[in-house]
């Protein structure tokens, strides 16, 4: 099972789980519900903490899921991978980009989760609580780095509300030019498509992006229903009327709408986007655990069916083809429990009000520079120094909990 000392939740697998301290046997199948139970405020430590062994394993699995490589990690072979690659819509994410960062060692992939509602009926939009118009924005922004020796994976979450200056760009589908202007990072996708998204991330991080992958959360949540639901657990009630989320504390199995509400909820804790990123990380870990424990990744037929679901709304750069997917899938199969690290960008202010933009996230430039220098130089993410006073400041958010040291057996729900 996966637990969380910060209080957002415990993701549970195995033969038993607890609800309000009461043991319940898994033989009695839990009811699948349409919302998630959990929620509390996360605190954010001052520097990036590599994940402990068990958490590193989940970091690897999360990385493979988001990049669609989880579909190939069972070794189903070139044919299935080729079908996956052929089913991906292609975008020109790098054409015309100028003044890019120098290429470093290793491989960098920009992973984007979008709020697209394309393909949803009116009934489905109501069921998923996504009746409003999509802003065509990035709902999740993650930078995945694979080391040159293919022995380590580092994933960094970039807050969607990060304050930045978007460079000059043309609105997609038009000839309308826009001068550089201040905005939130997630708006780059709607203002200039994948090219502007890549350029904005490169400008902020000075890390050169090698590949681009974009996945619809709606498509991903349909896959949840195909799995038969994903089990999660938390210690406190979690309610967000905007996302359609209202459940008491305890253990439950989320269906697609409940899972979507859980990963989209933004009005249930003071951590805002940071708590949301943590929930996304934990849900993805639970999703992959469900796929693994359910034997999906060992069954080529189930893999193909899952691919059909996920590829409904997946876009990638033209260079991320069959051979690249095969290489990355092979790497995922051979990572050890000590080969992954997962963190968020260190920030100085989580709620900086900016004219015309509202609340934005301002990065801690010095700490962020350390983080991305490590990625560029193909080094492990920087560790906190002993006695570092910044560790008590709300800067970085490791995936493993408030101090990056949570293990699966440390707390119960």
TrEMBL record:
Cell envelope-related transcriptional attenuator domain sequence ranges: 138-291
Chain intervals with Basic and acidic residues compositional bias: 376-386
Biased composition (Polar residues): 404-413
Region (Disordered): 376-413
Family, as annotated: Belongs to the LytR/CpsA/Psr (LCP) family.
UniProt-recorded name of the protein: LytR family transcriptional regulator
